[in-house]
Amino acid sequence: MATWSNFNLQNGASPLMEQIIFFHDHTLIILIMITILVGYLMMNLFFNKFINRFLLENQMIELIWTVIPAITLIFIALPSLRLLYLLDELNNPLITLKAIGHQWYWSYEYSDFNNIEFDSYMIPSNELNDNNFRLLDVDNRIILPMNNQIRILVTASDVIHSWTIPAMGVKVDANPGRLNQTNFFINRPGIFYGQCSEICGANHSFMPIVIESISIKNFINWINNY
Ligand code: CUA
């Protein structure tokens, strides 16, 4: 989850988030190099004497400052496309979870097993326990098994919401009358927090998402005893 003064991305908990972080770092390095180069050029512009008489009709410099940015953009575009298609790929999911956005809470359905379904409301500030996070904890958490491919189906019942959970690298809009799909693979146990990220009304800030990642053995146990 996000903690104080966290300037960077949150820690990832899935291979997709790992790839997203790699791409972010890669692009940021290119961005820093461009900024330094342009900054250096601008500084030089301030301190030269404007006496270059040959900078008219100079096709060579035109060619250089056209082709180099074009090549630089390819170095961003190709990894970006790779990531885009990687995020969309489904690899034989073991379980499917359906997330439905409402004003203003999420409800979940595990239709693979005993048709488990429940609502997930934020815990109000005046009912918090010492181990809860304000505006982030819910009464009924999503329980999911780690080290398994998981499919998420996202939809909404009233207005557009967005099922967003940074540690998984997942952000899918929940549209009424549509069923969106995404997937992830949780590679460690833990509790992962997310929030709705589509402005959906007065209590938009108060419909958080919590995933509790546990071992497959405990997950089966939870399913059987629900
Ligand atoms: Cu639901 Cu914002």
Automatic annotation (TrEMBL):
Binds a copper A center. It comes from the Eukaryota. Its main location: mitochondrion. InterPro entries: CcO_II, CcO_II-like_C, CcO_II_C, Copper_CuA, Cupredoxin, Cyt_c_oxidase_su2, Cyt_c_oxidase_su2_TM_dom, Cyt_c_oxidase_su2_TM_sf. GO terms for molecular function: copper ion binding; cytochrome-c oxidase activity; oxidoreductase activity. It catalyses: 4 Fe(II)-[cytochrome c] + O2 + 8 H(+)(in) = 4 Fe(III)-[cytochrome c] + 2 H2O + 4 H(+)(out). It is a multi-pass membrane protein. Residues 1-91 form the Cytochrome oxidase subunit II transmembrane region profile domain. Its cofactor is Cu cation. It is found in: Mitochondrion inner membrane. Pfam families: COX2, COX2_TM. Keywords: Copper, Electron transport, Magnesium, Membrane, Metal-binding, Mitochondrion, Mitochondrion inner membrane, Respiratory chain, Translocase, Transmembrane, Transmembrane helix, Transport. The chain crosses the membrane at residues 20-42, 63-87. Residues 92-225 form the Cytochrome oxidase subunit II copper A binding domain. Component of the cytochrome c oxidase (complex IV, CIV), a multisubunit enzyme composed of a catalytic core of 3 subunits and several supernumerary subunits. The complex exists as a monomer or a dimer and forms supercomplexes (SCs) in the inner mitochondrial membrane with ubiquinol-cytochrome c oxidoreductase (cytochrome b-c1 complex, complex III, CIII). Component of the cytochrome c oxidase, the last enzyme in the mitochondrial electron transport chain which drives oxidative phosphorylation. The respiratory chain contains 3 multisubunit complexes succinate dehydrogenase (complex II, CII), ubiquinol-cytochrome c oxidoreductase (cytochrome b-c1 complex, complex III, CIII) and cytochrome c oxidase (complex IV, CIV), that cooperate to transfer electrons derived from NADH and succinate to molecular oxygen, creating an electrochemical gradient over the inner membrane that drives transmembrane transport and the ATP synthase. Belongs to the cytochrome c oxidase subunit 2 family. This is Cytochrome c oxidase subunit 2. It comes from Pterodecta felderi.
